[in-house]
Design goal:
about 550 residues; mainly alpha; Growth Hormone, Chain: A; 2 domains
């Protein structure tokens, strides 16, 4: 009988086994091709204001006050409001974590290429469905297209390179995952200004240009994601870099496992749930800041953002528009530091250890959150902005360091599947963080607290959450030997992951290296992802300059 791998042919994992002359530095840009596309999930808010007037064009057509939220999913007579559009974020991260958890084990067996292609079909296909939803003014189609189907694509695309990169870079686990996962943070930095350009290009007297932009982005992203998926290669079983030997410990802390834990056992260990708590608390605090970054800056500093000594509530419409522009620059700057932190902290963790890195996150983050209200009351804009930029580096660093932390504790054989299950912490944080922050802030304002002080309690609660993360990290210990797979179980798992044929066909002892031509290919591939990333960085820095004048 024909095997499933024979049926899929070029998509089979065996077809992705690297040749002896393959250069491992071709894998990170392949991962970036996918992560820079799906990272646009962070930038979807660029569509909210145009979508609030998709029927009215010049000004929104409000829905009746007594219209139920579920009626807004199907109405064609009034425009959507920002709160109901904002639920897209919740759908993104709920389905990202859920799909990663459900299909992480399948990914380990099927390989990154097949997972990357499914991710491209879901993410880009979701955009096409959303485009039709906008064109026909059916919000449920946007939720289904980008939120549910696109969210599944996010989950598979997010974890597709993790296990592969860790196996290619056992000598730099943190750095390798940092290179890929920084792309998810950078997706909005490229996608948001690109979407703005596209909407202006497609806007007409009878269209705000959103559905046309969705279709254009779907085509662009599909090309990049397919390039990334077909460029994935996996190392042969047992491969290691020339001249490198597995260390006895990581940065002297003895946290690197000698064996491999099966995904079905990993979730039963206390270490898994401690890391789940670490990620959930770190992300809840950071994602809360991202969600309120723009109004936070505007309401705390008010007219001081444009050199006027006036509170937020005393500004006229023109002045409010000016400070909104400054706040948008602040949001872009946070995105830039989010990206940089993903690479910086993950790379640093290779030298100081994962546990020490998270201790820095929780101690420094707690101090910065606790001091933020004082900086706001003192009117120190530069210090306030700097504090939140550092906070966002640690938010991003938490994402990029966690795969390496998992591989240290549970081994590399099934780290992708284990990482997928751990991402349910992100799904939880995607609901907990924004809801907690928004409801506390709203309750403070309704209680009569001035807007420029209504975030103080929120900051203290976020600081307390990081104290909880510190305690979780403190309790992490090496995984007990009883949880590791036996040699026989490991051999079975390798057969399921189609690794035996890799060792047979290529040879586990072969040195994979690169000749001059391969390095030229590496430079060209990196240029493909570096050029749009550089454009996004330049655009962000240019817009953020008013914050420091």
């Amino acid at each position: 009988m024909e095997s499933s791998n024979e049926r899929f042919g070029i998509l089979s994992k065996e077809r992705t086994i690297a040749s002896p002359r393959f250069n491992r530095w071709l894998v990170p840009p392949a991962a970036l091709c996918i992560h820079l596309c799906i990272g646009m999930a962070y930038g979807f808010s660029v569509f909210w204001i145009p979508l609030t007037r998709s029927l009215g064009f010049d000004r929104p057509i409000p829905c009746p006050a007594d219209m139920a939220w579920y009626e807004k999913l199907f109405t064609t007579v009034c425009d959507w409001d920002k709160p109901i559009l904002g639920w897209m974020y919740t759908l993104f991260f709920v389905f990202l974590g859920s799909s990663a958890a459900l299909w992480g084990r399948w990914l380990e067996h099927a390989g990154p290429r097949k997972a990357g292609i499914v991710s491209a079909l879901c993410w880009c296909g979701g955009l096409v469905i959303s485009a039709y939803g906008v064109h026909s003014h059916q919000l449920w189609m946007m939720w289904l297209g980008s939120g549910v189907i696109g969210g599944i694509g996010l989950g598979l695309g997010y974890i597709s390179p993790v296990s592969t990169l860790i196996k290619w870079f056992p000598d730099h686990r943190g750095m390798s995952t940092g290179m890929a996962i920084m792309g998810f943070g950078g997706g909005a930095m490229i996608g948001s200004p690109l979407a703005d350009i596209l909407m202006k290009r497609f806007a007409t007297p009878t269209s705000v240009g959103v559905w046309e932009s969705f279709l254009a982005l779907a085509a662009i992203y599909f090309a990049f994601m397919m390039l990334g998926a077909f460029s994935y290669r996996v190392p042969p079983s047992g491969w290691k870099p020339a001249g490198w030997s597995p260390p006895e410990s990581a940065a002297g802390n003895g946290m690197i496992a000698k064996g491999h834990v099966h995904v079905d056992r990993a979730w039963r260990t206390p270490q898994f749930w401690l890391l789940w708590g670490i990620l959930c608390l770190n992300v809840s605090a950071g994602i809360g800041v991202i969600g309120m970054a723009s109004p936070l800056l505007q309401e705390i500093f008010g007219g001081r953002l444009i050199g006027i000594d006036a509170r937020f509530g005393d500004l006229n419409p023109a002045q409010l528009a000016e400070i909104a522009t400054v706040a948008a620059a602040f949001t872009g700057l946070l995105s830039l530091f989010n990206i940089g932190g993903r690479f910086f902290w993950a790379s640093l963790s290779d030298y100081i250890g994962r546990k020490a890195t998270y201790f820095v996150f929780f101690v420094l983050g707690c101090l910065l959150y606790y001091s933020a209200p004082s900086l706001g009351r003192a009117g120190s804009l530069s210090l306030f902005v700097a504090a939140f930029c550092v906070i966002l580096t640690m938010y991003g660093g938490g994402f990029s360091t966690i795969p390496a932390y998992l591989s240290d504790l549970f081994g590399t054989q099934m780290v992708g599947a284990i990482h997928g299950r751990l991402l349910t912490a992100w799904s939880t944080a995607g609901v907990l963080g924004p809801v907690l922050v928004n409801y506390i802030n709203d309750a403070q304002i309704r209680a009569g607290v001035p807007r420029n002080q209504a975030y103080d309690t929120t900051m203290y609660i976020l600081a307390a959450m990081l104290v909880g993360g510190f305690v979780c990290n403190l309790l992490v210990r090496p995984v007990a030997a009883k949880w590791f797979m036996t040699p026989e179980e490991l051999e079975i798992e390798k057969r399921l992951a189609h690794e035996r044929s890799a060792a047979t066909d290529v040879g586990a002892s072969h040195e994979i290296d690169a000749d001059q031509g391969r390095w030229i290919l590496v430079l060209l591939f990196w240029a493909i992802v570096a050029i749009p990333l550089g454009w996004g960085v330049w655009t962000t820095i240019t817009k953020a300059m008013p914050l420091f004048r």
